[in-house]
Amino acid sequence: MTTLQPPAAAAPRPAPPPAKRDRRSWTGWGFIGPFVAVFALVFLAPIAYSVYLSLFRNQLIGGNQFVGLDNYTQALKDDQFWSAVGRVGLFLAIQVPIMLGIALLVALALDSGRLYGKSFFRITIFLPYAVPAVVATLMWGFMYGTKYGLVGDINETFGLTLPDLLSPDWVLASIGNIVTWEFVGYNMLIFYSALRVIPSSLYEAAEIDGAGQWRVIASIKLPAIRGAIVIATIFSIIGSFQLFNEPSILRPLALNAITTDYTPNFYTYSLSFAGQQHNYSATVAIIMGLLTMVVAYVVQLRGMRKGA
Amino acid sequence: MSTPVTTASPAKTSSPPRLRTPRKPAPDKRRRSVLMTVLMALMVLYTVVPLIWLVINSTKTQAGLGDSNGLWFAHDFALWDNIRDTFTYHDGIFGRWLLNTLLYVVLGAGGATLLAVLGGYALAKFDFPGKRAIFAVVIGAVAVPGTALAVPTFLMFSKMGLTDTPWAVIIPSLVSPFGLYLMWVFAAEAIPTELLEAARMDGASEVRTFFQVALPLLAPGIVTVLLFTTVATWNNYFLPLIMLKDPDWYPLTLGLSAWSNQAQTIGGDVIFNLVITGSLLTIIPLIAAFLFLQKYWQSGLAAGSVKE
User: Fold this and answer.
1) Which of A65, A236, B207, B213 has its CA 20 to 30 A from that of A114?
2) To the nearest whole percent, how much of chain A has pLDDT over 70?
3) Predicted ipTM?
4) For residue A62, is it left (φ>0), alpha (ψ between -120 and 50) or beta?
């Protein structure tokens, strides 16, 4: 590293524009080429194939036939699909603000420098991220049990009758709790990392102006990490719309509460792998994908506008 | 997303304490708060109760699980028996799942990290035709939900004869848009362009420049991306669920849910003690990795959040 300094300094400086034009070459493709090739295979090709599939229908008479947008009109009138969308919409509206709110509070507390044992808290609260959704759901599923689980133990010890967390009324909240448990720490870490790179000169200026802790949070910290908040929100929205692992693993414990069309993702999975309706499944998946992108885009626009 | 929110370098994070200590009133203002610490302790309690539950219950036999309190030990301490049974049950298939998971992680997460490092380096340090298009497409594709991809990918792979083989799990794992993004931001920050130019002027080839100059500087970023792609691959459930029929190719996640579901089938062997012990064995390696490597990945993440 040290030996490289002299030639750079000694070299006569060429006029910048030609040097820049020289650098624009295909060399970069040598490095990014492999990524692009695999990306095309596992992202672009399936998307294109999905669109193709959605335009056909496998009929008893006539076999695989081109049906145009028929699948789409069917999906738009499909009550099963829309009730699943409504369910993840409700989930999104309640779980995501709770999860991100807690994550933000924890990140701000860590960043405040007013905690005892800060690094212990940071790493411990992050740990559930390393736990697979399967294991997290199995653990919570056992704990939710009214007969053998922790809920059952609490009922027994205190003579209570807590509601059955796996009943149709409660199961969505129970899933929300699992997802919150899994991802609070991850989001906290994103917020915390963003907080750490705020230039300290801003705090010093605030200190001179006599701003209190709350003022610093409202006027410096939150605006500075707005980008991170928007990103975390978008990823959480995508996650909610894709909800599959938790309900599908919880289903054997809550058969009458979680149906195979519980979430849009579960519905496409069931259509395709239990019902062999590949074309219609692809259609539902595309509509869900478009819906996700629209919502994510709107959130991004609003998030960026807020500070402007 | 591509506009820098702040240009502060990660190194600056260490400056606030250094600037503050000389002044007398500063430490006073940073008084530690007992109330805040207590609130955080509650948060930690929420985080660790399921993990404690997992550890305690992996010491119980199937019978002990039913008739003891969930948060305390049963009289029989069967942890070692459970571990032995987990590895010997059904001709030791758990060991096979563990090896499969390791295979998927080494090839999938390792490959994903390699592609992300090469691609991120190219995006940060080269100007090449199609660069903007690649960025737009990759970021756009991140918003496409997995559902939209799963079914067509399955059908495509099925036509290519790849389903029910390890490749069906490994190939889609090779692409990590988040890894590419993180590596791109990290490389832009960590590698001074002058250093590369100097190496080239000395006559080093692009490949040599990459390996000898760039790669060492990228180490913290590589650890971060490797850890996050490892988690993604280790915890992967949806993709193997779709792609694999043969239990001999299952990863741990799929195997555990299969064991858990076994209790629901008529005449199925109820082995919740093994499900719980297996879950514990599944999460230990990742938690250990996060704890041991925390210094590296946290600095890598902090650098990654400089731009958003």
Assistant:
1) A236
2) 91
3) 0.85
4) left
